[in-house]
Amino acid sequence: MRANRLLGSALIEHNLVKFENLESANERLLELSSKGDFRQASVLSILVNETKVLKEEDVIHLAQEEQGLGAIDLRHYDVPEDIRKELDLPMCWATWTVPYDKEEDFHFVATAYYFSQAVRTYWEKKLKGPIIWQTTSMEVIADFLDRQQSDREAQTKSNILHPAPTT
Prior knowledge:
Elements: H1 2-13, H2 19-34, H3 43-50, H4 56-67, E1 70-71, H5 81-86, H6 89-95, E2 97-103, E3 106-111, H7 117-127, E4 131-135, H8 138-161
Parallel strand pairs: 1-4, 3-4
Antiparallel strand pairs: 2-3
């Protein structure tokens, strides 16, 4: 909820949405959250997909122009297995953010929620090192996380059907 609130405030501050639009989106956010629909409980998704008062491209463009972020499409990136195994999928969904690589002490992180200070602060504390932020769309994040969930479920099923031999 905090990530969504701070993102909404930043969207108003950057004149991307009006207060009334955000107020309406926040009401819908509470409704979705109360139903436990945390994947859809995204103020950005509501503003872009439901109320259509915001274009996600505008948010991505602002992150690139104002903050100097690059963009990444994780559908075309081979995320190392050790990083995929360590992903906290519920937290990635909650923050619309995915750590996708690490070189020496630098973490590479893709996010659709860069303008939420709560999101950046969470990942900075969790990863404990310098972060190179990249912007991406919610669709790219969702596709990536859906694949990770499917891979984990397939692995669990495989382990149940074919347990490792004991010695």
